[in-house]
Amino acid sequence: MAWAVFVILSVLCIGSVLAMIVSRNQAHNALFLVLAFSCLGGLFGLLDAPFAAAAQVLVYAGAIMVLFLFAIMMFNLREPAPREKRRLRTLLAAILGLVLFAELAVAGWRAVAPGSASPAAPDGLAGLGRLLFTEYLYAFEITSLLILAALVGALALAGKKEGA
Amino acid sequence: MARYFWLIPLLPGASAFVLLLLGQKLSRRWVSWQACLSVFLSFALSVIGFVHLIRAGHGAGELAKTLLPWIASGSFSSAISFVFDELAAVMALVVTGVGLLIHVYSIGYMAADRNTSRYFAFLNLFTFFMLVLVLASDIVLMFVGWEGVGLCSYLLIGFWFERPAASKAGMKAFVVNRIGDAAFIIGVLFLLVTVGSSSFAAINAAPAAGLLRPGLVTLVAILLFVGATGKSAQIPLYVWLPDAMEGPTPVSALIHAATMVTAGVYMVCRLDGLFSASPAASSVVAWVGGLTAVFAATIALVQNDIKRILAYSTISQIGYMFLGCGVGAYAAGMFHLVTHAFFKSLLFLAAGSVIHALGGEQDMRRMGGLKKALPTTFPVFLVGALAIAGVPFLSGFFSKDAILTSAFAGGHYVLYALGLSGAVLTALYMFRLIYMTFYGQTRATHPAGTAPHVHESPPVMTVPLVVLAVFSALAGFAGLPVLLGEKANWIGGFLEAVLEPAAHHLALSTEVGLILAATAAALAGIAMAFVFYRKRPDLPERTARSFPGIYRLLVGKYYVDEAYDAVVVRPLVRGAETVYARFDLGVIDGALDGSAAAAASAGKGLNVLQSGLVRDYALAFLLGAILFLGVLLL
Amino acid sequence: MIPPAAFLLVAAVLFSLGVLAFFVKKDLLTQFMAVEVMLNAANLALLAMAKASGLAAGQVIVLFVITVAAAEAVIGLAIIVLIFRQRRTIRTDELKDLRG
Any residues with CB less than 8 A from the CB of B335 and at least 6 apart, and which? Predict the structure, then answer.
């Protein structure tokens, strides 16, 4: 049962990303990504990380992609020009991508070589919370400052000028 | 007090150092005083040392002092150490004594020049090096002095370096000397390798001790002598001396008459053990000396520049000194060195006085009738001329006679004949000079109203002249012929503490005959000069026209300079230019420019990577990440 | 039980696709989206490993990554807006000021 969900979600996710690559309309790209991220959220759930799953859907699919959509609306661009003759570069990128994939696969395979015991299940949500506020408290607080900084920065950069 | 003899070189050296550094800031007066005082103190010390040697007796009073360790390499070591023996004493007295007089004379001669501090600095520096040369206890230190005087000669010849002729003359002197020095160095290297030590004592004892095979002795001696021909202006390396007259006249007097050019003679005398051990080498020395004596005298006969005549005369007289050394009469050679120092520097300084009086004129054809106008210069000039001509009882007579008698006594009759003919020529050209300069009507040609007021020189110049004249006249009595008694040759006896004695056994009648012959030669020369240049002034012209070939050959100085230029100088210059173009410019510059160009083109090639496009940079990232991962995984 | 290896494989695929997308696309905005894809792939891998090793640290890190990615997207978009205002284009081929 879990396998079926996994396969469906994975295929959907990968498929949307492929679609994103193929499509040349930016709004379409963004929407495909929304789909992809949501599937990812599902995959997170399969990995016994409910909080991460929820955060993924809420933040990534919900907030970040919406931001992208807003930006797309602002730019109001027409269709991009037809694909140029940069075949060489695309080919090169494809090859390198394949190489990269191979390497990552090998690395991943080695990381979870069969035989390494599957230890006890993680503590769950409460455990996560505990970790956040003890071991990773410092990072937690700084991250909140980071968000504040990003907010202020964005305003400063792109906000309306005085009397503009 | 004589213990401090090692200060003799150091005092002028210190003065030179001060003048070189601070000379510009010191007053002219201070500079003159300091320069002369340092030489005077050296002279005083030399006299003290000399007296000490006399008191100590034959060879017993030798003083030695080691100042600093210098070279210590493997089994060879050389220290900076000085030695004061009879030979060194004679040289030191000449250098400091005559040097002092010339320093004083220079005060007057260079009064109008702006660069007196540089002049006196170089003069002091020269004195320092020359004294190092004569007081050195080993051949390596002597060579330091040898090179140093060469350097100072270059600096002083080219003193008025704004004149291209002076610069070129200085360069010529240095380069020609260098050729001789190359041979000298090779000789020294042979000595170091075979004898193992550079001290004169060791070298002189080496042939007897079997450290040097006869063939090697001859080779080394000849090599060293080649160096001497450069420094002392003999055939074949004499060509720089006439050109050196571009320098100030006191420089010509000091360096190119009395001291530096005699360094070669001193060296041969110092190494008398070496030269005596090789009859072949001594032969070479004597013959080169004799031939040069006559050769240079013939050229002097037709020169018109007063200083050139004296230059060729110097070359000729040094030939006599080498002739003496070559036949084994080292003391006679040294004796002539001393007397020559007196009368030649006298002649040069007096000539300087004449030139100074005429406002710079050096061509004798525009002189004449100066007898009355220069009441002090003329008599001293005459004394010098009589001395060099070998007129009896003046110094030159005794010293020249000593050499010629030794030559005859040794059976070298051809050399004797050369010497005798040289004596005739010497008297002839010297009195030609006297008559053309001082007698007759003045031939000076000046545009109306610009004739310089002909005046006698100031005392600071004439007093040294008088002193030198006195010595030129009387110094001969230090070396009277042996026929007057064994003790008569005082200087010979003095020097025999160091030098090999000359084999000298002649019948009384032969000796008297030789003396008469020498006197006759001198008088004959003077008489001929009188006829040609006083009685019948048209005769020189007619003789020249009768023998046009010979005349042109002599005036052209046997075209030696031209020959050297064509055979040696031009090919070398062309060779150097070719090497410069091919190697310096082509290879070295090419390599530099090439590597620069390579770097530039590499840069331009790599510029492709800097496209400014984010995508390309990201590609580079990716590549790097892949490689990195690959390394991690492997 | 789904082996973590499978998830890692998916993560690898997603990451490579993200790289490909970055190079294929020509406008800044879409390239930025590709970067987000890559980030997510990394998150997936992190969680897979967290499951595999039992350490909850993986999940914590993922949370932080999501948060920081959000902040980064904000700033990135602000910059893209500025570029657009200045140049009226977001096509990376035309933004070559760093050309050497």
Answer: B398, B399, B402, B478, B479, B491, B492
- Give chains near B: 3+ CB pairs under 8 A: A, C
Position A131 scores a pLDDT of: 85
Give me the residue label for tokens 């004569």: B134
Residue C30 touches chain B, beta carbons under 8 Å: no
Residue-wise DSSP of A110-157:
HHT-TTS---PPP--HHHHHHHHHTTTHHHHHHHHHHHHHHHHHHHHH
Count the helices and strands in chain A (H runs, E runs): 7, 0
**For the segment B256-299, what is each residue's pLDDT rounded down to a tens digit?**
888 888 899 999 999 988 898 889 999 999 999 999 999 999 99
Between CA B400 and CA B336 the distance in angstroms is: 6
The answer to whether the Cβ–Cβ distance between C96 and B611 falls below 8 Å is: yes
Q: Is A131 on the interface with C (CB under 8 A)?
A: yes
Tokens 């080993």: give the residue.
B138
Chain B positions in Cβ-Cβ contact with residue C98 (cut-off 8 Å): 610, 612
Tell me which chain B residues have a C-beta less than 8 angstroms from the C-beta of A94: none
- Least CB-CB distance to A103: which of B615, B619, B630? B630
With an 8 Å Cβ cutoff, is B73 touching chain C?
no
Cα dist from B355 to B245, B340, B456, B457, B464, whole Å: 13, 22, 11, 10, 17
CB contact under 8 A, A103 and B633: yes
Tens of pLDDT, residue by residue over A73-127, are 888 766 665 555 667 777 888 888 898 898 888 888 887 765 555 555 556 788 8
pLDDT (tens digit, 9 = 90+) per residue, B46-78? 999 999 888 887 777 788 888 888 888 887 888
- For residue B207, give both structure tokens: 């042939």
ipTM: 0.89
Query: Can you read off the two tokens belonging to residue B17?
Result: 């150092």
Q: How far is CA A13 from CA B507, C37, C70, in A?
A: 136, 10, 20
Nearest beta carbon to residue C21 from set A21, A64, A149: A21
Query: Least CA distance to A99: which residue of chain B?
Result: B626
pLDDT at residue B386, as a whole number: 92
Residue B118: closest CA among B23, B254, B1: B23
